[in-house]
Amino acid sequence: MVRTQIYLTERQRAELAAIAKTAGKKQSELIREAVDRLIDQSGHSRREAVLREAAGIWKNRKDLPDFKATRAEWDRN
């Protein structure tokens, strides 16, 4: 692990201490859990954004083969 210093408001510090006491965890553990959740949420949002940007990128291409015809050749009747 890498040591990192952060600044918290008095309210944040007090609430974090109360949550840690109730949960039976260290404040640093709660902070790491919160950072992990933020990273997971951010990663999910970034993946969705990339997929939305990529959707339809081949829509108007004229240099591609007729995929429906190619697929129809594969179908067994």
Automatic annotation (TrEMBL):
Residues 2-41 form the Ribbon-helix-helix protein CopG domain. GO terms for biological process: regulation of DNA-templated transcription. Pfam families: RHH_1. InterPro entries: CopG. This is Ribbon-helix-helix protein CopG domain-containing protein.
